[in-house]
Amino acid sequence: MTTQIQENGNQIIAKFSGRLDTNAAIQTAEDVKPLLEATKKDIILDCDALDYISSSGLRIFLKIRKEASANSSKVIVRNINDEISQVFMMTGFVSIFEIQ
Q1: Which of 5, 58, 96, 100 is a good FRET partner for 89, with 20 to 30 A between their CA atoms?
Q2: How many Å apart are CA 41 and CA 8, to the nearest integer?
Q3: Distance between CA 1 and CA 69 in Å, rounded?
Q4: Phi, psi of 37 (to 5 degrees)
Q5: CATH of domain 2-99
Q6: What percentage of the chain's residues is helix, strand, coil (to nearest 5)?
Q7: 8 Cβ contact list (under 8 Å, min separation 6)
């Protein structure tokens, strides 16, 4: 599992690659800390290369959204595959996140 963070103007983009399972969640939580501090920027969670997300990974996404809301930032989830889309539907995340 890898997470790459890059700033692009008024956006911060996090690109996730691999399996965001319980084992990877500890490192991923550290990797996304810059997103938690973003103020008034769009946060893009690019899941194009994300193969799987566990409940631990969902908690990380939820924490990002919570902090973003407190910091007047917006979170957009992009490029989720069918499996992750189903997880988002079953957990209600489709109503919490803007998905593109």
Answers
A1: 5
A2: 10
A3: 26
A4: -100, -5
A5: 3.30.750.24
A6: 45, 35, 20
A7: none
